[in-house]
Amino acid sequence: MNMAQQTVVTMPGDGIGKVVLPEAIRVLQAVGFDAEYVHADIGWERWVSDGNPLPQATLDLLKQHTLGLFGAITSKPKKEAAKELRPELQDKGYVYYSPIVGLRQKFNLDVCIRPCRSFPGNPLNFVRQTPGGGIEEPKVDAVIFRQNTEGLYAGIEWTDPPAEVRAALATHPKFKAFESVASADIAISTRVFTRAACRRIVEAAFRYAKKHGYPSVTICEKPNVLRETSGMMEEVAKEVHADYADIQLWSTNIDAQMMWLTKNPEDYSVIVAGNMFGDIVSDAFAGLVGGLGFACSANIGDEVAVFEPTHGSAPKYERLDPPIVNPIAMILSAAMMLDHIGDTGKAVAIRNAIAAVVEEGAVRTYDMLRIPGGPEAISKGAASTTQITDAIIARLD
Ligand code: NAI
Ligand code: MG
Q1: I want to staple 43 with a disulfide (CB 3.0 to 4.6 A). Which of 73, 112, 115, 179 is the partner?
Q2: What are 372-383's pLDDT values in tens digits?
């Protein structure tokens, strides 16, 4: 019997998500990954037609098959989203929320991994001047572990907070400064950290550092100011560190880290941060290794795991024919899926093939050429999305 080993739920979503995800599947097939792919809807079209961008059928498929590849979705602010609902659904109380944030919360995909590794020869790599006036290109190999479900992005927030919330806040001496402000003029976003979630992200980071031979784990928070939440992350990190004597535990403040990461990015390896700081520091590191066309990620829970490029749906490029966007972030995300299920050899083969294509430099998408995106990019020498995928496939061993 020739049964597929794995079933992967594919969620292309919107815009260029629909362009890059099929390219990743082509690479997975070419590398010999034996899987069946089932499509699941997510995103804007379902919001407009049903008032729900995250259909139950999609949740059911993910629960059943536990592995998901996700492209990107289009999100819009609440009021704008409501206006685009089909007429029959207008004013029926539907509220838009981001389905990818929904997925993370629904399946508790609390460990987000965002590797930022430079490929030698990528013209988008970070370079700096040497004291002698030359140029050097430090090798960047940072892996950001972002807590994915709590903190400032947990969605516990109000403008015009209810009286009970106000009363609770008034029990804190520091709230005195806001006592005379009318509730309608107060907006509050809460930052909730739990010890269990801090422990899970820190443990995942140390396990990863040990497995892959990284020398340090850096907690990137702001414990001197955010004493309770960042403080808890640091406290937990010290406890977990006791089991990893051979790995150094460092701590940086998010603001200082943003400065250090362009002065000496090569010093950092595994980095742990809460939801918002992790979002910030991972985008910043991604900028050192080629930006959105190269930024891959994994969202990992106890049962379900979803792999996605960190870029969005880039609507201005969705209808270009041929498509010009860089599929590497999506393909690297698919390789992370292979890592996750232990198919390391194939993951390495994919990364090596990408490295070879980047290093040769003969086939480059518009972003790698530093030219504007648009229909004229191809005539200026940029490879199409399909062409660079073909080049990667041709380099698979
Ligand atoms: P974006 O990531 O979609 O695009 C920003 C710009 O980056 C693009 O215009 C393009 O110049 C470049 N870019 C992005 N991906 C690229 C690729 N693969 N190759 C080459 N260039 C690439 O972010 P933007 O414009 O802020 O948001 C567009 C939509 O995407 C919004 O509706 C936003 O809410 C949504 N979004 C969704 C995310 C997700 O699905 N996880 C993440 C970020 C934004
Ligand atoms: Mg982001």
Answers
A1: 73
A2: 999 999 999 999
Residues with CB under 5 A from ligand 2 (ion): 279
- Judged by its nearest atom, the ligand closest to the C-alpha of residue 74 is 1
- What CA–CA distances, in Å, run from 175 to 222, 361, 383? 21, 57, 57
In order of 196, 202, 228, 254, 352, the CA distances from 270 in angstroms are 20, 10, 23, 14, 21
Q: Bin 91: left if φ > 0, else alpha if -120 < ψ < 50, else beta.
A: left
Average pLDDT, the chain: 96
Q: Which residues of 232-250 are buried (b: 16+ CB within 10 A; e: fewer)?
A: bbbebbeebbeebeebebb
| Token pair for 219 | 């907690």
Domains and CATH numbers, the chain: 1-113+295-397 (3.40.718.10), 126-153+191-288 (3.40.718.10), 156-189 (no CATH)
Residues 81-101: tens digit of each pLDDT: 999 999 999 989 999 989 998
Of 66, 117, 154, nearest to 290 by C-alpha is: 117
Local structure of residue 112 (DSSP, 8 states) = E
Q: How many CA atoms lie within 13 A of 188 on its CB side?
A: 20
| Among 104, 313, 387, residue to substitute to test ligand 1 (most atoms within 8 Å of Cβ) | 313
User: Distance between CA 209 and CA 362 in Å, rounded?
Assistant: 34
